[in-house]
Amino acid sequence: MYDTPKAVVTLAAPGGRVDNAVMDRTGELAALILRHGPEEGLAGTVMRRLQLIRANGPTMPIPSVYEASLCLIAQGSKRVSLAGRSVTYDPYSYLLVSLDLPLVGHILEASPDAPYLCAKIDIDHGALAELIMAEGTAAPRADLPALAVYPSDPDLVDAACRLVALLDQPASIPVLAPLVEREILYRLLTGPHGPSLRQMAVVDSRISQVGRAIAKIRGEFSEQLRVDEIAAAAGMSASSLHEHFKSVTRMTPLEYQKQLRLQEARRLMLAQGMSAGNAGFAVGYDSPSQFSREYHRLFGAPPRRDIERLQASPAYAGPL
Predict the structure, then answer these.
(1) Which 3 state secondary structure label does DSSP give 5?
(2) Residues 217 and 97 in one domain
(3) Kind and range of the H or E element at 204?
(4) Keyword Transcription regulation: yes or no (predicted)?
């Protein structure tokens, strides 16, 4: 049940100090997000890898699949949970997701006067690989976390500000946006999360192999997948897949598939008004009782009661 994570880790400015340079840059980023994302929710932009997020109040824990991305909060704070473990981040820390993961996001601090504001920048794998090749640094072989929060730095936030500011200059976006995105990747590569990013771009690295396993599961999550099929897609033995998949994602491949199924079923019931029986069948469950049991275990209530609770809550504003 996501409402009671086992551990919460909060990281603020380095050494617990208020970093004035970061504060100045995040203030600028907040103003840009307010200008270009004036409505609540997640707003896409003409730059396909940039999305802006706004919430005028705290939200309930909301499940969704996060793709490999950088999330920079300009105002407010948020907790993200994966398999019972949580990280909390704010304007003095950034979230980096190295793999597609079924996470639960919970906005903690937000109000109409001081809304939650965030810029989400998806990772360009091609540009990342080019940078790593140019840099010439080998990727580490050890398994690294696919979800982590680290203290922010003014250069990274400054680059994000320049990326969002390009929305004011649409004619410049085709030329300048790729350059700024490349700078952001460089800042990440030279920061504490660099080793995980290097693993993402190396074909035979563990995190890359786990990524191929995840792509297989996401593409066929409603099917009856066997572990050896997933292992073959990843280029690993079944035993090696199990070991490294769990080390990176904190769950087994089949647990990952189950979470995708249940999150998609929840989305179908909320967004399309599907019955629990039809939603369970649509995501691959043959037994309604098994679907209801596993749904209850994950979300803390049977399907119908959970959906009624979400729909009645003023804090529910859709996936953010």
Answers:
(1) coil
(2) no
(3) none
(4) yes
* Closest CA relative to residue 320, chosen from 23, 2, 42, 19: 42
Helix (H) or strand (E) holding 88: strand 85-89
Cα end-to-end span (Å), the chain: 19
Strands 116-122 and 69-75: antiparallel
Whats the size of the chain, residue-wise?
Answer: 320
Q: What CATH number is attached to the domain comprising 140?
A: 2.60.120.10
d(CA 303, CA 28): 42
Are 235 and 209 within 8 A, CB to CB?
Answer: yes
What is the predicted pLDDT for the residue at 33?
Answer: 95
pLDDT of residue 57: 92
Are 21 and 53 contained in the same domain?
Answer: yes
Question: Are 169 and 298 members of one domain?
Answer: no
Residue 44 lies in a domain: yes
* 273-277 long-range contacts, CB within 8 A, separation 24+: 276/302, 276/303, 276/304
Residue identified by tokens 């982590």 is: 148
Provide the domain limits for residue 290: 255-312
Are 84 and 21 in the same domain? yes
Residues 26 and 134 in one domain: yes
Residues 124 and 209 in one domain: no
pLDDT, tens digit (0-9, with 9 covering 90-100), for 196-213:
777 766 656 777 788 889
* Total structural domains within the chain: 3
**Which two three-digit tokens encode residue 35?**
């200008």
**Nearest residue to 149 via CA among 209, 102, 85:** 85
| Under 8 Å between Cβ of 44 and 122 | no
Locate 20 and state its tokens: 């004035």
- Is 38 a domain residue? yes
